[in-house]
UniProtKB/TrEMBL annotation:
Pfam families documented for this protein: VKOR (PF07884)
Protein name stated in the entry: Vitamin K epoxide reductase family protein
Entry's transmembrane regions: 12-34, 69-86
Taxonomy of the source species: Bacteria, Pseudomonadati, Acidobacteriota, Terriglobia, Terriglobales
Residues of the Vitamin K epoxide reductase domain: 17-136
Length: 171
């Protein structure tokens, strides 16, 4: 691959990351408006799988009494800022990698909690989780670089991003 090809691929991944971050922010705005009482309901697709209104107004969606959509808007705004800064600043790139890991982990946890606690999904939150997955995909080199740097400096136990499969004793 030529340096120009690498630059084009990097630019495409950066654009995907920024676009997915904007998508995550856009899906959180209606939820935030609903959680703060500005709008009276969240529309869902006509499927019994979704119950955005109940989930968005639940106690778990208000950690410390704060609507989680507002926390998400602040969080993804920080991710967006780091994504912009990461092209020019090495520290921002490392922070972006760590932030994407946190974002993806939080999104997966949130979807899992919805399924196991409510037996339903918030369609808007699912959109946010999908956008977050795309962000993690687009920022995978920043994530990899961050993990490798942490491993090299001894801040995590692994020395590479490879996993060893071990045999578990039979039950």
């Amino acid at each position: 691959m030529t340096p120009l090809d690498v630059e084009r691929k990097t630019a495409a991944h950066d654009a995907l990351l920024l676009g997915a971050c904007c998508s995550a922010l856009a899906t959180l705005i209606p939820v935030g408006l609903y959680q703060t009482g500005v709008i009276s309901r969240l529309p869902d697709p006509p499927m019994s799988l979704f119950d955005s209104n109940r989930i968005a107004m639940s106690k778990v969606a208000h950690p410390m009494g704060i609507p989680d959509a507002l926390l998400g808007l602040v969080s993804f705004s920080a991710t967006f800022t780091l994504a912009i800064l990461a092209r020019r600043h090495r520290t921002a790139r490392s922070l972006l990698g760590a932030k994407l890991i946190l974002d993806a982990s939080a999104a997966a946890f949130n979807v899992g909690r919805q399924v196991f606690c409510f037996g339903k999904l918030c369609s808007w939150c699912t959109g946010t989780a999908i956008s977050t997955g795309v962000m993690a995909y687009a920022g995978r080199t920043a994530i990899r670089d961050t993990l490798l740097k942490a491993a090299a400096t001894g801040k995590i136990g692994a020395t590479s991003c490879e996993y060893t499969i071990v045999d578990l004793p039979p039950n």
